[in-house]
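I wish you would study the pair of lines that follows with an eye to the fold:

===
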Amino acid sequence: MRYLIEHETVLEYPQAIREHHIELRLVPRSDGHQKVMSCSIETEPTAELASYNDYFGNRVDYFCVIPPHSRLVTRLKTEIETQKENPFDFESVPPAEEQEWLRQAVRRTPAMNDFVLHRSQATPSEIKLMELLKSTLPRRQPERPLLDSLLELLAWVPTVLEYRSGTTEVHGSLAAALQQGNGVCQDFAHLFITVARSWGVPARYVMGYLDPGICSTGEELATHAWAEALVPGAGWVGFDATHNLLANDHYVAVAVGRDSYDAAPQRGSFKGDSAGEQPTVKISVQEQ
């Protein structure tokens, strides 16, 4: 699939601010499953951008606006080609050998431990999660392929959370979503990740874009979030618990991390007397 994606974020402040430092994680990843064909980023006020790759391999574009300003606009326009048509297309590993396969994968890449051991308010410990749910968690069945257990986990998450737009805060705690029984895509991804990590399976958070044809009724077009788990024989496989789907070529991955904070589309700091309003975000995803 090939998509043209446009992403505009507007920040407005009641009083002028200054020395505004911004990081953007908006440019899609280029890997074996997707390729960036073209990309441009514009800002208002105009600023000079630089870029680097962060610890997780995400492209980060950053800039500074030093003079006083009460409005900041960032615009991304990119064309991306995705190629992962069938997420089940891989050579499987016998269940008896899967644990050793995972062990060797982590041994070859020690940084993979971040996706097993990390705990935060968004991805709490197994004990904390059981206290919140007041029940046991789904268990991995070692005699069956790991993918089967992960698919059961994928179907379990929507039985715990109901999707409701705007009901939880950006980078909010998983506890808040579980206590009210509903949340947004970030909460669904965090719940999946937390359980998968309790099994000792590397799992990471993904922020990106989704083909509008998959979006549910009432779901606003915005950046989307899903989880990826390391599956023996396949590598990273995407699990979209919000829609109970495996990620394929209708998904465009932008940034990955331990949880949503690592993969935030935009964050920054400034000097001034007002925090301003919530950003206004407009996103367009068009199939080419």
